Structures are given as structure tokens and as C-alpha cells.
Amino acid sequence: MKYDVVDLNKKTVDSIDLNKDVFGVEVDPAILARTIQWQLDCRRQGTHAVKDVGDVHGSGKKPFKQKGTGHARQGLKRAPGKYHGGIAFGPVVRSHAYGLTKKVRALAMRMALSEKVKENKLFVLNEMAVKKPSTKTFKKAFESNKWDSILFVGGEKLDENFALSARNIADVDVLPVQGANVYDIMRRDILVLSKDAVAKLEGRLA
Asked: Do the bridges between strand 2-6 and strand 12-17 make them parallel or antiparallel, or are there none, so unpaired?
């Protein structure tokens, strides 16, 4: 399908053919939600932990005899039911990562791209490179375009001046095409791809 190629001021300078199998698929919110949750779970450090009975400081001696006291039987002062005792079934250091099939991940990526096309929030940039870094110029262009939350996806190697110009602007991310992912695409309002990124994504997902 035909799609306009624009410059940084959103003026049409060319056109490009987008693959319908990548940028025109039917969107299933459940697939997107499942993939985003998988990404977030894989990012979790899993360093949470509490002290169980074996970690609490204190004696292992039986606090009082088993029978004849009128109290419930107790084995040690560090039991979970005692004051300052260990925590029963508390969190432990572990990985929260789990598997998600390549087919589902690829499908979710196609859906994320298609969703941006459907909402008219995908722009293909003719060139993702500038001669010198200028945050002021970029910010002015974004304000005139009414872009306030943007993800730029460039080629395999980003132009350093372009990345420097955008990095100090709030809610603007710049990623190489190999780093493009469902979560970052969906959390930003506007998606801007370079022509090289379009070709790489179609080669990967078609």
C-alpha cells in the first residue's frame, strides 16, 4: 500500500510501498497486551526477598515444654507466628522471565505497526540524519507537528547527531531497528520510521 514519506516538518517529499502483511493486519488487543506483559515481566530484576525462619536471628531452642502449660505448642521462637519471627511463603530472589513463542512475538509486532497505521500515527521519514545536533530545532519541529510523545526507529546504526538532538527532549526515544519492540511502540503516541527501518522490519516480519 502507498504511504507518504515526509521530512522532519511533516512535508511530503516521496512515497513508499508498505507491505500489507506487516503494516495492514487485523489488530487483536489481547495479543498486544500479552506481549507487553511478557516484556515487562522479563525486565523485572526479581531481587525482592524476605527473611524466612532460617534467616531470622534467634535461638532454635523450644520456648517451653510441649504439654501442661495451657498454651499452644511451639517449636521455636523464630516461627512465623511469633513476634519478630520469620516470614512464611514470602518472596524470594528469582527470575520472572518466561517463554513466549516467536510467532506470537512477530504477530504482536505486526499488530503494533498496523495499529499506528490505522490511527494515522505512523510517519516514514526520508532521512534520519542531521549535519549538527540541535535540540532547539527538533523541539520546535515537534511542537509545530503537534508531536509530544514520539518513538524514532532508525537503521541498524543511528546517526549520532540525530540521537543527540532528540535525547534531551521529554517523551522522545530513538532506537535502532534491531531494538524496535512492541512495548516501546505502543507506549509512545507517534511512531516515526526511517526508510531503512521499514525495509528491515518488512524483511524480518513478512
From this structure: antiparallel
Residue 60 has pLDDT above 90, yes or no: no
**R_g of the chain computed on alpha carbons:** 27
Q: How far is CA 41 from the centre of its chain?
A: 10
- Are 63 and 151 part of one and the same domain? no
CB atoms within 10 A of CB 6: 17
Q: Does 172 lie in the same domain as 80?
A: no
* pLDDT tens-digit series, residues 37-55: 999 999 999 999 999 999 9
CATH number at residue 120: 3.40.1370.10
Q: Can you tell me the distance from the alpha carbon of 94 to that of 91, in angstroms, rounded to the nearest whole number?
A: 9
CA dihedral 36, 39, 43, 47 (to 10 degrees): 80
Give pTM, 2 decimals: 0.85
Write down which residue in 24, 59, 90 finishes a domain: 90
**What residues make up the domain containing 68?**
50-90
For 68-123, write each residue's pLDDT tens digit. Answer: 999 999 999 999 988 899 999 999 999 999 999 999 999 999 999 999 999 999 99
Domain count, the chain: 2
Q: What is the DSSP string of 35-85?
A: HHHHHHHHH---------TTTS-S--S-SS-SSSSSSPP-S-TTSTTSTT-
Work out the average pLDDT over 158-185. 95
Mean pLDDT across the chain, nearest whole number? 94
